[in-house]
Predict the 3D structure of the following.
Amino acid sequence: MSDEARAQVVTEEEFGRLSDFLYRRTGLVFGAAKHYFVARRLAERMAATRTGTFAGYYALLRRNADDEIEHLINAFTINETYFYREDHQLRCLTGDLLAERVAGRPAGGGIRIWSVPCATGEEPYSLAMWLLENWPPVDRYEVEIVGSDIDTAALDAAEQGYFGKRALMRLSDGLVEKYFVDRGNDSWRIREELRESVHFSRVNLMDAGETAAQGRFDVIFCRNVLIYFDDMSRRLAAENLYECLLPGGFICLGHAESMSRISPLFEVCRYADAIVYRRPWEDRR
Ligand SMILES: C[S@@+](CC[C@H](N)C(=O)[O-])C[C@H]1O[C@@H](n2cnc3c(N)ncnc32)[C@H](O)[C@@H]1O
């Protein structure tokens, strides 16, 4: 049966079992409107694993043969992203947030910024470029930028650092020339110095152990993932992220996301360029 034909015949029960399996592992919600999306990707995984029936595929998934859970999760993530996305938050980072974070700290101290989820790397590399371009004290501090995602294929792409025209659409020619090597055929590779300035790690936002293992951060960018979760997963992610913030540390969400509706743990901070959320200074645990 072709992938196309298979995608047409996923039953309600199969759809429900697979959606539930994914939800329990990732927090991602696939409602009835996503039936075709789910069926299509299931068909691809069944073809890749040469399993002829859903029961056969599900049994393989339960055994996690050949790391099938990882392949399944990679197939279901939506990695939409691009350089300098929602750049008003980048302006807020260098205009307000970092000044607060370094106030009273001696030069040479560390600043940790986390891009989670980072998808194929555009966000953490944007942070690195933006700081070099727009934050004069950048050389006075040890700035560490970490990019994390649940999708191992996206992380591999991020580490490789090849990007197409669409990813670069918000960057000026000058920035592209300065930070990328033109490979021809509408493909650019981010320069080695920048590739080396970002570290990548696989993290599931639903997993308190995995998030805590990344340590604590001054600023977290967690943009455009909470929209794919339900209320319970959002709250869990928010609590896990809270534990990863230093007291007074900030979290920036995507424009369609608001922490006020998710968790009372954070303070709302309104700056000229963006609304962000802070772990209260008093909470020094
Ligand atoms: C739309 S991208 C957002 C990328 C970037 N933050 C931005 O705003 O441009 C969403 C990413 O969330 C990741 N993701 C989904 N569920 C996740 C989870 N439970 N833990 C970590 N990352 C997750 C996906 O793999 C995907 O790369």
Q: What stands out?
A: The pocket of S-adenosylmethionine is lined by residues 26-28, 77-81, 85, 117, 119, 123, 149-151, 154, 203-206, 223-225, 254 (CB under 6 Å). The first strand starts at residue 110 and ends at 115.
